[in-house]
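Entry 14: structure prediction run for HxlR family transcriptional regulator. Input pasted below.
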Amino acid sequence: MKVVKNEELPDKDMCAGSLRNVLDALYVLNGKWKLAIILSLVQAAKRFNEIQHELAGISPKVLAKELKDLELNDFIIRKVFPTTPVTIIYEASEYSHTLKNVLAELSNWGAQHRERIKQSMRKQS
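Run finished. Output tokens:
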């Protein structure tokens, strides 16, 4: 972690604005599954069962709700094809690609955290 010395602290208004921004982002992307669903669909468009299979542990009810929420917030596009039976494909919207840096940073942080936990467990053994 980079420590910067002699840097001025942000003022109260700047902190409040940053906090509002973070809370807005968390409100839209809340929950255990939304970012994972977006990441899955950024890699490739998928059908419902493909998403559920990739995200082991998510129930169909929760997946359906999360997909609706993501569609309402313009993160995914739901395409319906008039086949028998009807085929529905979910894909990431252009807007979801704006999360690319966030997802990369979360992935990096998650890997660092996992390694830290492993090292901590080794020390305890």
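Notes: The chain has a mean pLDDT of 89. Will compare against the previous run tomorrow.
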